[in-house]
Amino acid sequence: MDPNDRDYTNGEITVHWRPNYCIHATTCYRELIEVFNPRKRPWVDMQGAPTERIIEIVRKCPTRALTYDWSDPSRVSDKPDSEADEMPDSEKDDLQESNMVEINVMKDGPYVVAGNFKITGSDDKELKKMVITSLCRCGNSDSMPLCDGSHRMSDFSDNED
Ligand code: SF4
Ligand code: FES
After folding, report:
1. Contact 44 CB / ligand 1 (< 6 Å)
2. Predicted pLDDT at 90
3. Is the CB of 58 under 6 A from ligand 1?
4. What is the pLDDT of residue 70?
5. How close are the terminal C-alpha atoms of the chain, in Å?
6. How far is the CA of 50 from the centre of ligand 2 (A)?
């Protein structure tokens, strides 16, 4: 377990967050800001929504940075078996085997790129091997060309005021 990993519980379930797997894709907080609010500390408020709704959003996390465990051991949880398990193998295989690369523009956030691709730097070195990542669209990332979540702090918005 990474020392930066965090657990949040409401007694019924525990939500696990693994920041190393978070690509700041914005899915969780766009859909459930009452629970996942990166501007607050702690950023997850387990009292913000009913358990089933929290599970629904946790399951949408594209990289499995978010997973959950039931407190009741007789219920089926969704916890990664290992650090390497950032998404179900079947989904990873599908992405790797397909020649498709999908790019989604996240509202007020990065480009999320998924599929069989590689990113090389100006020195021709491969930057990162992956099947899903996010590319900065706001210009504020300290990890260019990858998104590091800075769009939240810079109030990057697609709306033209
Ligand atoms: S990768 Fe998962 S945890 Fe990170 S912002 Fe997206 S949905 Fe939330
Ligand atoms: S879009 Fe996320 S840091 Fe720029």
Report:
1. no
2. 66
3. no
4. 95
5. 44
6. 30
Within a domain: 77: no
Our count of domains for the chain comes to: 2
Burial class for 159, CB neighbours closer than 10 Å (0-12, 13-18, 19+) = exposed
Q: Report the CATH number at residue 113.
A: 3.40.5
Closest residue by CA, ligand 1 atom 8: 28
Using CA atoms, how far residue 48 sits from 6, 8, 43, 88, 133, in Å, is: 17, 12, 11, 28, 28
pLDDT averaged per 10 residues, the chain (length 161): 92 95 89 94 97 96 92 82 52 70 92 90 81 93 92 85 57
- State the ligand closest to the CA atom of 35: 1
Residues with CB under 6 A from ligand 2: 24, 109-110, 136-138, 140-141, 147-151
Q: What is the CATH number of the domain that holds 12?
A: 3.30.70.20
What range defines the domain where residue 95 resides? 89-153
